[in-house]
Write a structure and sequence with these properties.
The chain is mainly alpha-helical. The protein contains twelve helices and five strands. The chain has two domains: 44-186, no CATH class; 205-405, no CATH class. It has a three-stranded parallel β-sheet with strand order 1-2-3, sandwiched between helices.
Length: 408
Amino acid sequence: MRLIAAQPKRIYLNLSDRILDFNRPHIGNIIDTRGLDLATKDRRDLAYYIRETENSICIFTERFAAAPANVIQIIGKYLTPTAKDINTKVSLLVMPRKGEPEKVIGADGQAVEDLDRGIALRKANIDNVFTNENINFPFNDILFYDALQGYLGDGSLDRSDESVDIDLDRQRVFAEIDRVIIDREQQLEKEIQILAHQVGQIESGDNFAPHEDDIIIITKQKISEFSSLNLGSNNFSTDYVEMLPAHHCVLRATNNRYGQYELRDIDIYFNGRYLAENLIRQSTQNFKAEILKVVDFVEAEISHGSTLSPAMQRLCSQINENYEDLAVNLGVEIETMLSDRILAPQDYDESIFWQQAIDRWGQGSGYKVDVLALYIQQVGGIDAMFAKLIQAAWIDRIIQLILTFLGD
């Protein structure tokens, strides 16, 4: 008899208030979403905490030497140029091991041999990586904490090192997390103030000058010209199949579970959402950039102090917000289409596709090639539908809303 230990879905830890006092301001609960690795592109639980909960701060943890390699793909996916407020709710906690910061190489090609200097150089390097990937990650929210500093390899306290104050360092890192939370609160308050100010300027402003009415007419004409994206078909189905598990045994286990292999954090429906968002941004970002150029043109042409100025600032923000919503919501629609239509039902007796994908195992060589071919055949029709969805959403959620804002 073989005994298989099931992986628990939830583990509860009891923390002494000497480690973490939940009565301290700003902290309600701490939820550990388990570790990430290079093979992990996204997870449903991460999407929930990053996007759908307003009162959460998401702290990604990473080893000192590797940061931010293991988390940058996921951070970059959510921290897009048009993502509203996401950059105020994420932080990176880098965890050095004893002696690592001192080994950082300085500008002279030599190890710095200094803890604080090594951390400063590593922080600047991490910031450069984010910048090179066009990820607007807050520099001050790159934090460092060595929980084992001051301890020996066997876990006992290193009483010979009097330079380390363990309690003080713990208080420091929690104070930095508190500061991240406060910064988010202040940023949200600032956004509310800006919005209220813009609305007040628009409501109290005079009517547009005659030439500004003409500018609005021209602007609406220019915006209307961007209605058609002319996307044609796309490669969603090909890219989607390439995202399936690479190893034949993992692919088999995923098929046996109808696409959701929780032990390996595999969810082929949620992966479709991730891919759809990427394709939407890639295929439409240039069109959005051209629309924003039209808004810039209006601001350049209007009179100083015109009511149009705050209106155009508000419009620019609204376009970015609507664009982010379009990508996110269409991604959800594609996920639903995959789970509820294209790869449904998730039942062996009711789905010929799942019967064939599951039964192919043990029928000779070429398993992976044949199973991927089944997927391509099953999802291939989504390409044309996806292009139509993007086009329709572009008109309804971007173009029409801009024209309505301009008084159409």
